[in-house]
């Protein structure tokens, strides 16, 4: 049995299938971990969701920002967009959206932590897991729409244990699905999407923040296409820009072998009904 971790798929279903063939994935034996953003940008988001749902407990997928934004549009917290029409009009949309709501924000199997974007430096792994679980419970319950409104905040509050519960949960949701860089005062620099050598003055990569408390484990993350595939002690970044026409990346945890599949989507966008 092997465990493969795959970067941001973004609806690139044909590329995903070629990557699964490349790694010789066997669903009865192997496991897949996905870093989130199963949907968006690419041409076959609906196919990716249906495929993921069928895999059952052979697959662990954490929520990414595109996944969360789809939920917000389903709850009418955010306005619908044309590219989401296939998902929100699908005959099985209720089942797919409910499956998406049940996904975790963070998954921890020592020594690995799976999260879409990153962790705030103030959090230990235990604290991050606790905060993530709290947000997951809300997203699965009757107050999901209220929490999803935090996606509209123009300014995300700086993390503090003294924040109110709603502010803590909104801050957690935004950090785990959107974080790339952070400023010296602890505020998230959410507008930056570029490479490491272009980080604005006064900001730093979340994983390079001084006194980061989550260094005890290996963090597997995506979201940062400008970073590309990235490996450093205790870190594996897996968003290698497939949706931008580059490659989709997987890593096998047992021996750290890396597999990459070039973008293989057709240029026309045709989603099934």
Q: Which fold does the CATH topology refer to?
A: Purple Acid Phosphatase, chain A, domain 2
Which structural class is indicated by helix and strand composition?
A: alpha/beta
Order of helical and strand elements: EHEHEHHHEEHHHEEEEEEEE
Instruction: Give the averaged pLDDT, no decimals.
Output: 95
Distance between the termini: 35 Å
Shape-level CATH architecture: 4-Layer Sandwich
Instruction: Describe the sheet with the most strands.
Output: 5 strands, mixed
Shape by Cα distribution: globular
Query: Could you name the CATH class?
Result: Alpha Beta
Number of helices: 8
Please give the share of residues in helix. 25-40%
How many strands in all?
13
CATH homologous superfamily grouping: Metallo-dependent phosphatases
What strand order characterises the main sheet?
A: 3-2-1-12-13
Low-confidence stretches: none
Number of domains: 1
Radius of gyration from the alpha-carbon trace, in angstroms: 18 Å
Q: Note the beta-strand portion.
A: 15-25%
């Amino acid at each position: 049995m092997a465990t493969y971790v795959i970067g941001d798929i973004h609806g690139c279903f044909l590329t995903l299938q070629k990557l699964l063939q490349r790694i010789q994935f066997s669903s009865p034996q192997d496991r897949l971990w996905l870093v989130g953003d199963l949907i968006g940008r690419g041409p076959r988001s609906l196919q990716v969701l249906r495929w993921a749902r069928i895999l059952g407990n052979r697959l662990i997928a954490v929520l990414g920002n595109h996944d969360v934004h789809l939920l917000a549009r389903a709850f009418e917290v955010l306005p619908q967009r044309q590219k989401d029409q296939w998902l929100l009009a699908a005959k099985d949309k209720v089942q797919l959206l409910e499956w998406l709501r049940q996904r975790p924000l963070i998954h921890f199997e020592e020594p690995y932590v799976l999260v879409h974007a990153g962790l705030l430096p103030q959090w230990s792994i235990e604290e991050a897991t606790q905060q993530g679980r709290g947000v997951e419970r809300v997203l699965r319950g009757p107050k999901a729409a209220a929490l999803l409104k935090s996606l509209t905040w123009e300014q995300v509050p700086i993390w503090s244990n003294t924040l109110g519960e709603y502010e803590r949960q909104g801050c957690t949701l935004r950090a785990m699905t959107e974080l790339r860089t952070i400023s010296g005062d602890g505020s998230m620099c959410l507008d930056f999407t570029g490479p490491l050598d272009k980080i604005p003055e006064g900001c730093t990569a979340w994983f390079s923040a001084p006194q980061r408390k989550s260094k005890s484990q290996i963090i597997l993350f995506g979201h940062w296409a400008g970073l590309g595939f990235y490996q450093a002690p205790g870190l594996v970044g897996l968003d290698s820009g497939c949706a931008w026409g580059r490659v989709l990346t997987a890593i096998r945890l047992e021996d750290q072998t890396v597999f990459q599949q070039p973008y293989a989507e057709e240029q026309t966008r045709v989603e099934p009904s």
